Inverse folding.
C-alpha cells in the first residue's frame, strides 16, 4: 500500500477555507463565551440565591452532557421553539458559546478564589472602598491568573468546534471529510486534517505552560 | 541600639510622618488614645477568644503585647483594625467611640473615619502582587483620599528613600526579599498618616537575618513618637521598644507594666511561667 | 412560546434508548480499562531517559491531546482498515479510538502524579533495598494512583461524554438511538432533552464524587 499525500495539496484552498471557518468560529465563541463565563462565575458567588442556583445548574448541565447533543438540541429544537429557521452557524455559535461559558466560568471561579484573604484584610486596613477593592485588587489578579487556563479552555473549544461538521457547517473537519470521500483517499486527507488541527493546537498548549510559569512567578508573593 | 532606645522612653511628642498632622483629637495629651472596655469576641459559640479584655493606651505609648499562642493577641489587633465583629464591649479612640457592639444580631458598629487613622502591618505578606511597590504605596491615598497621582508618588518616593528602598519603586513584590516586603508594607500603611500603628508579628515569617532591618524601621518610627501596638514573640525587641508591656492570655490582660517590671519582676505566676518558657528553652 | 411538550410518543423508543445506553456504558468502561492501565505504562515510557522511547511516546500523547476526538474516531474508522488490512467490528474500533484518546490524557495525569512522589520516598525505597521494579510497584504506583485519582475519574467521565461521537460513525449508542428516535417520532425537543438528561444523570454524580474526594484531600492536607 502506498500513499499519495501530494494529491491532498490540490485541495489546499478548500482546506484553508475550512480552517478559516474553524478559527473564526473559535475566536467568536471564545470571546462571547469568556464574557458569559465571567458573568456566570460572579453569579455563582452572588448573595442572591436564585442567581447562584440558576448559574450552577447551567454550568453543571453543560459540563455534564456531550457537546454533540447540545449542538443537536440547538440545531433541531431552536427552530421549533423560535418558530423560524436558524442557520447552522447560529446553532453552532450558540452551542459553543454556552459550552465555553460553562468551562470558563469554572476557570474564573478558581482564579477569584485564589486571591488570598490576607489581601482583603489589607484592603480593609487601608480603608479601600469596596468598589476599589474589586476593580483594583480582585479583578486584575483574577483575570491575570485566569489567562493560562483560559487559553487551554480555548484549545478545547477549538477541538470541540470540529463537531459543527455534524450539522453541516463547512469547517475544517467537514471540508476534510468531504474531500476524503470524494477522492476516496481517507488516509491521506484525514491525516492531513488531523495534522492541521495539531499544528494549531499544539503550540497553544505549549504557550499555556510558558505563560503559566511566568504568571506564577509574577503573581507569587 | 540600646542607647537610642533609652531616650525613647521619654519621647512624648508625636508626629506620624513627615506630613502634617491635622487631627487635634488624636494628639490631645494626657487623654487615653485607645480605651478598650470589656471586649468579648468569639469566632463561634465554642471558640471564645476575648473574654472581657480591658486595655488603655495613652498617647505616645508603645504597647507591646506578649503572651502564649492562641491567647487572642492577633484577634485583639484585628478587632482594633475593624477586621472582626465583636460580641460585646467597646473601643474608643482619642475619646471618640470607635468600635461598639450592637447587642443582638446587628453588626458591630465601626466608625470608619476613625479606622482610617489606624494603620496595620500583618504577619503574612499582604502586598498586592500585581502592583509595583510604588503603586502599592499610592493606591490607598489616591482612592481613599483622592490625592493626586503626582503628590502621592512624591510622598511615596520620599518614604521609600527614607527606608532605603527607592531603587525598588518600580519592582514587583515578588522581586523583593521578605524583609524588604515588610518594610514596604510599613511604608504603605504610613502613606495614610496613621495616628496609631498596629504590628502583628511582622517579623515572624522572616528569615532570621532579615528580622533586624524590619525591627530597625519600627524603632525609627518609635523614635519619631509614633504610637504603636506591637505583638511579637521577639522578647529582645519587646524589651527595647516597649514603653509598656501587656501580658495577654486566655482572652484577658493578665498583667501589664513597664518592660523592666514585666521582664524582671513579673507579679503573676502565669506571666512568670510564660517568660520562663520563652527565655529558658 | 406556544410549544407543548409531549413525552408520550417517546415510549415506543424506551427500549432502544436503553439498548443505546448499554452500548454507551460498555464503550465507556472498555475505554477506561485501556486508559487507566495503558495510561500508566505510557506515563512511565514518556519519562524514560532514552529519547528513542520518550520522543515517539510524547508525540503520541500530544497528538491525541491536540486534535479533535471526532477526527480520531473518523480516522480510525476509515484508515485503520486500509492501512493495516484488518476489519474489526465498529464497537471494537470505537473502543480503540476512545481508549487511546483516554490513554493520552491519563498518561499526563499519571506523569504529574508520579512527579509529585516525594524524592524521600524513592530514597527510602532504595535504602530498603527494593529493586527499581519493586519501587515502581510498591511506592510509585500507589502514590501516583492515589494522587491522580480525581483527574482519572474526571477524564473517565469526559470519555463517557465523548462516546456520543461514535454515533457519527453509526455505532448504535445512546446518542445514535436518540437521534433516530427524534427522527421517527418527530419529537426532537423531547428526545434530545431526555437524552441530555440521561447523560447528565450519569455524569453529574461522578463529578460530585470527584469534588468530594478533592475537598477531603484539601481538609486532610491542612
Ligand atoms: N478566623 C478564625 N476562626 C476560628 N477561630 C479562630 C480564627 N482566628 C483565630 N481563631 C482562634 O482564636 C484563638 C486566638 O487566636 P489568635 O490568633 O488571636 O491568637 P494569638 O494570640 O495571636 O496566637 P499566636 O501567638 O499563635 O499568633 C485561637 O485558638 C485560634 O485558633
Ligand atoms: Mg497571632
Amino acid at each position: 500500500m502506498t500513499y499519495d499525500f501530494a494529491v491532498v495539496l490540490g485541495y489546499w484552498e478548500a482546506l484553508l477555507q475550512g480552517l478559516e471557518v474553524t478559527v473564526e468560529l473559535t475566536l467568536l465563541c471564545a470571546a462571547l463565551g469568556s464574557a458569559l463565563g465571567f458573568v456566570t462565575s460572579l453569579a455563582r458567588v452572588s448573595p442572591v440565591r436564585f442567581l447562584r442556583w440558576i448559574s450552577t445548574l447551567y454550568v453543571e448541565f453543560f459540563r455534564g452532557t456531550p457537546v454533540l447533543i447540545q449542538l443537536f438540541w440547538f440545531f433541531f429544537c431552536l427552530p421549533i421553539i423560535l418558530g423560524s429557521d436558524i442557520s447552522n452557524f447560529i446553532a453552532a455559535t450558540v452551542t459553543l458559546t454556552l459550552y465555553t461559558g460553562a468551562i470558563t466560568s469554572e476557570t474564573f471561579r478558581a482564579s477569584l478564589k485564589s486571591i488570598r484573604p490576607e489581601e482583603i484584610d489589607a484592603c480593609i486596613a487601608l480603608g479601600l472602598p469596596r468598589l476599589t477593592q474589586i476593580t483594583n485588587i480582585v479583578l486584575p489578579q483574577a483575570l491575570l491568573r485566569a489567562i493560562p487556563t483560559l487559553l487551554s479552555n480555548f484549545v478545547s473549544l477549538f477541538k470541540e468546534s470540529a463537531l459543527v461538521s455534524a450539522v453541516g457547517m463547512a469547517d475544517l473537519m467537514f471540508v476534510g471529510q468531504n474531500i476524503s470521500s470524494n477522492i476516496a483517499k481517507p488516509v491521506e486527507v484525514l491525516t492531513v486534517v488531523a495534522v492541521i488541527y495539531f499544528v494549531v493546537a499544539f503550540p497553544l498548549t505549549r504557550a499555556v505552560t510558558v505563560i503559566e510559569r511566568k504568571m506564577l512567578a509574577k503573581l507569587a508573593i | 541600639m540600646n542607647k537610642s532606645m533609652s531616650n525613647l522612653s521619654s519621647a512624648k511628642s508625636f508626629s506620624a510622618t513627615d506630613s502634617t498632622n491635622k487631627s487635634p483629637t488624636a494628639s490631645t495629651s494626657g487623654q487615653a488614645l485607645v480605651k478598650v472596655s470589656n471586649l468579648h469576641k468569639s469566632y463561634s459559640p465554642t471558640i471564645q477568644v476575648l473574654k472581657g479584655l480591658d486595655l488603655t493606651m495613652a498617647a505616645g505609648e508603645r504597647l507591646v503585647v506578649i503572651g502564649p499562642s492562641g491567647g487572642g493577641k492577633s484577634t485583639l489587633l484585628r478587632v482594633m483594625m475593624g477586621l472582626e465583629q465583636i460580641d460585646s464591649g467597646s473601643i474608643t479612640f482619642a475619646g471618640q467611640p470607635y468600635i461598639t457592639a450592637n447587642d443582638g444580631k446587628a453588626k458591630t458598629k465601626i466608625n470608619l473615619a476613625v479606622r482610617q487613622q489606624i494603620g496595620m502591618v500583618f504577619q503574612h505578606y499582604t502586598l498586592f502582587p500585581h502592583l509595583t511597590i510604588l503603586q502599592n504605596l499610592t493606591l490607598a491615598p489616591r482612592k481613599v483620599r483622592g490625592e493626586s497621582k503626582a503628590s502621592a508618588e512624591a510622598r511615596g518616593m520620599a518614604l521609600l528613600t527614607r527606608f532605603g528602598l527607592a531603587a525598588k519603586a518600580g519592582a514587583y513584590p515578588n522581586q523583593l526579599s521578605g524583609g524588604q516586603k515588610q518594610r514596604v508594607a510599613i511604608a504603605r500603611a504610613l502613606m495614610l498618616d496613621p495616628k496609631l500603628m498596629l504590628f502583628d508579628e511582622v517579623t515572624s515569617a522572616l528569615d532570621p537575618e532579615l528580622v533586624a532591618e524590619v525591627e530597625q524601621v519600627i524603632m525609627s518610627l518609635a523614635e519619631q513618637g509614633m504610637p504603636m501596638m506591637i505583638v511579637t514573640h521577639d522578647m529582645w525587641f519587646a524589651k527595647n521598644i516597649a514603653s509598656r508591656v501587656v501580658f495577654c492570655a486566655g482572652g484577658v490582660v493578665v498583667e501589664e507594666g513597664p518592660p523592666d517590671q514585666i521582664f524582671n519582676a513579673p507579679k503573676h505566676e502565669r506571666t512568670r511561667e510564660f517568660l520562663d518558657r520563652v527565655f529558658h528553652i | 412560546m406556544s410549544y407543548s411538550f409531549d413525552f408520550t410518543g417517546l415510549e415506543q423508543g424506551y427500549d432502544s434508548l436503553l439498548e443505546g445506553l448499554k452500548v454507551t456504558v460498555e464503550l465507556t468502561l472498555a475505554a477506561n480499562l485501556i486508559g487507566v492501565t495503558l495510561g500508566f505504562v505510557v506515563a512511565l515510557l514518556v519519562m524514560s531517559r532514552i529519547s528513542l522511547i520518550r520522543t515517539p511516546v510524547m508525540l503520541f500523547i500530544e497528538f491525541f491531546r491536540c486534535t479533535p476526538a471526532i477526527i480520531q474516531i473518523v480516522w480510525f474508522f476509515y484508515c485503520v482498515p486500509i492501512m493495516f488490512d484488518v476489519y474489526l467490528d465498529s464497537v471494537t474500533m470505537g473502543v480503540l479510538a476512545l481508549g487511546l484518546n483516554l490513554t493520552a490524557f491519563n498518561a499526563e495525569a499519571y506523569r504529574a502524579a508520579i512527579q509529585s512522589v516525594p524524592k524521600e520516598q524513592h530514597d527510602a525505597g532504595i535504602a530498603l533495598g527494593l529493586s527499581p521494579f519493586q519501587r515502581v510497584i510498591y511506592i510509585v504506583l500507589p502514590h501516583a494512583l492515589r494522587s491522580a485519582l480525581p483527574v482519572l475519574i474526571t477524564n473517565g467521565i469526559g470519555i463517557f461524554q465523548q462516546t456520543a461521537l461514535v454515533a457519527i460513525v453509526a455505532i448504535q449508542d445512546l446518542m445514535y438511538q436518540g437521534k433516530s428516535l427524534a427522527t421517527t417520532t418527530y419529537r426532537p425537543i423531547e428526545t434530545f432533552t431526555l437524552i441530555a438528561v440521561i447523560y447528565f444523570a450519569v455524569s453529574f454524580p461522578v463529578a460530585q464524587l470527584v469534588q468530594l474526594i478533592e475537598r477531603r484531600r484539601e481538609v486532610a492536607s491542612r
Observations:
- The pocket of magnesium ion (ligand 2) is lined by residues B 73-74, 200-201 (CB under 6 Å).
- Residues 208-223 of chain B form the longest helix (16 residues).
- The interface with chain A takes residues 78, 81-83, 112, 115-116, 118-120, 122, 124-130, 139-140, 143-144, 172-174, 181, 185, 188-189, 192 of chain B (CB under 8 Å).
- The CA atoms of residues 178 and 206 of chain B lie 6 Å apart.
